[in-house]
Amino acid sequence: MPTAKFEDLISDAERAPFQGWDFAWLDQRMVEDPLSWDYLAQVRRRLDDARSMLDLGTGGGEILSQLSPLPAITVATEAYLPNAFIAARRLSPLRVQVIAVEGAPENYSTLATPDANTPSLPIRDRSFDLVINRHESYLAAEVLRILRPHGRFITQQCGGRNYAGLNDLLGLPAPRFESWNLSNARAQLLAVGFDLLDMREQFTTVRFHDVGAIVYFLKAAPWQAPDFAVPKFRNRLSELHNQIENTGPIAIQAHHFLIEAEKPA
Length: 265
Prior knowledge:
Helix 1 (4-15) runs parallel beside helix 8 (211-220). The protein has 265 residues and is an alpha/beta fold. 32% of the residues lie in helices and 24% in strands. It starts with a helix and ends with a strand.
């Protein structure tokens, strides 16, 4: 029978707010081993050479704001309107324009059509020296179009096996985006004309220290397990709670990759 602690963890997670791309509520409750690279450091290496930069899918502007001082012309896009407002408030003091856009289709769905360019970005050709993207879908042909010659594209992506073990624990199907990996992303960028400068892929370990962290994460990332709902999986969550209480945090694999590409002259 579920304990009072279990009930408290579940109810706290369900009530906890989530906005922008802020996972602070999960601090010390869901802990991922660090990657061998630092996305922010990778971007900072290119900022001195960039007079203009675009952040694709800025969320609430949490990551972009950490890169200040920014190039004189810095623009951010966001497809989820509530986040666009949050980003505009956060980034306005940094003189960043935030544009609400229609989101690109998931990259795994355009692997067979790498030159897809719809929906297009409301941005003129050859507008930016640097385009950055952290965990957001993109159309490779559109990124190439808006970059100036020798412009750089830096993206860190969640791979298709990211947190798939969580689905296994709950008895849910694997994520639909299993085919999204470094090899396929590389092929997609090469197909539209990019030169590739740096490519890295890594599987790390993430540990859930309580069952509330699992519930909160799946609330914040509904694409991971679209069929998840607490009432439907209450018995399994109770089993996972008992497992954590008896043997410690639950460990699964995270999957990420990083690419830096350049538009030829």
